[in-house]
């Protein structure tokens, strides 16, 4: 089976989810445009896009069994990305249209998952579907805490608060994708399922850590400080800096939101000097270790877990090249 | 991992003298990774940025699943 099969299913599902509605031409065109752009930047060959399939193969399953889950996973990721952009005010010009499209994709994800009943036992399909809904609700709860934390005056979120939000927002969804792939691949015992779930959970947190690193120190200078979103380096600095230094940082962050580049640059410098990079690196390493350890706990071992380990290493190649991994 | 944050801050800013209690509060796992960090910083003294700059083909970490790739 080609790695693009999930991509084809995704496009077909997106088409079908609106063609049943005679007035859905404009929505279909919008979704087609959004999914085309998404698939261009997130091709089905990307490991994270194929996570359910990789997990399915890791337990020796037939990868075709994971196609409905992989298609659903793509739609969930895209919907989550659109909601995240909206909530971070990155799509203000198309706010209402994007909101409607993102909502539609959630329903499309459910339709994609319904196809699982045709290739798997009904109870498996139901478990996977229920678990997805729970994971999405948990992600919504995490996103809610993120938004409230971002916009509240006198923000006091600590690194532990941030990690709790990251686990809900990202960890739960990746845990679902990995667990669901394994279960349709034939992982019937609870311990194996738990191992794959745990792997995905920590991978999800790891990716959020990478997101926050790139949001401040990334090559292209993403703008977490300019948008004022809840960021782990800032949570870290708020915890460790002296009250005076913290007040100064808060002042700089307020000015950064007002697009004062000099203030943003000074804030970045303070975060770097305070050890925020080292902290992210260390916490990321802990979650990478936990993810790898979960795979090692699979009863009898799993023969083809290299793709899952490679995915972890891909998040942290800096550590691998330093000889620490 | 709030305690770990305090330990790392003291470590990076050279204020390790009075943090015995803080280190004692860390988990075994946190202590092990902290030792790795010390080892890394001995290779690239005080330059975590240089270490992280090695990350990824473009100098970035992996693009996360819910964020669009950064634009040049």
List keywords for this structure.
heterodimer, A: 325 residues, mainly alpha, 16 helices, 76% helix, disordered C terminus, B: 72 residues, 4 helices, 53% helix
Mean pLDDT across the residues of chain A is: 83
Amino- and carboxy-terminal Cα gap of chain A:
33 Å
Looking at how many chains there are and whether they match, the oligomeric state comes to heterodimer
Report the major sheet of chain A. none
Secondary-structure class of chain B: mainly alpha
Number of helices, where a helix is a run of at least 4 consecutive DSSP H or I residues of chain A: 16
Summarize the structure.
Chain A is mainly alpha-helical.
What does this structure look like?
The complex is a heterodimer of chains A (325) and B (72). With 325 residues, chain A is mainly α. In chain A, 76% of the residues lie in helices and 0% in strands. In chain A, helix 1 crosses helix 4 (67-87) and helix 1 packs across helix 5 (95-114). With 72 residues, chain B is mainly α. Mean pLDDT of chain B is 65; it is low at 55-72. The chains are: A mainly alpha (325), B mainly alpha (72). Chains A and B meet through helix 4, helix 8, helix 9, helix 11 and helix 14 of A and helix 1, helix 3 and helix 4 of B.
